[in-house]
Write a structure and sequence with these properties.
Structural class: mainly alpha
Number of domains: 2
Radius of gyration: 22 Å
Shape: elongated
Order of helices and strands: HHHHHHHHH
Amino acid sequence: MSLPEINEKQSCIETEKRRFPYWICPVVCAFVWFVMNWVLMITWLAQGSPVYKSMGGGQTVAYISDIGASMLKPLFVIGCTVTSITFFSSLYAIHRNQRRLETSVDIAAIGAGGLGAVSLILLSIFDTASFPRFHNGFLCLFMLGVIFSAVFTTLSYRVLGTAFIERAVLKTSYQIKQWIVIIEVPLTIAMAVLMIIDKDNIAAVLEWLISFVFTAYVLSFYLELRPRSRTMEGKELLRERSLWERRNRRPISVITSMKV
């Protein structure tokens, strides 16, 4: 690595350290989503598994939205809003940090994630009890947005080639997303088919499973955004700096000392 490249890389790292700690976003997103769903489920079970007016004939297992349209709607709206904002922020930060915004795959991933995030907020506001058609439409857009964001994010790693995914952290994140796509796509298709043929009880169970898979998908963002990623990059830069100094037999005076 040449001296200008070392200077440029250190400048990028120092700039990154001053930015907002985006690694918080996936943690908050996963926590809020996970806790909200458990609160909804526990409340429904504690009430004796009631049948809400939004539930179809013969349906005994409530969808997440059925419970969210009850007295817990404020919790549902707030939880979905926080989840949407932090989910999109996490997705955007990943692609921005890797400087890959110029590729069409990354733009598609962010666009799909944005569609899913907005749809999640709208489906919580237009609840299934009062606005069933709007709610189902936004639910469909949300699920499609999340799935396509995962697909495009996974493809973006492939576009970059094997050199990028050789880093252990990023390789692990890539593998997690790949498995999530493999699991979530058939589950979503099965849920949609079951809803169409009025097998709501099984479809509701699948919806709960999909919601927890979404939690794992969001947590995979943390692997790429966590502070250690920047620390490891800083250590790599120090090794490059030391090698350059030994090779040229003089210190790099233009580079300030780093703390990693």
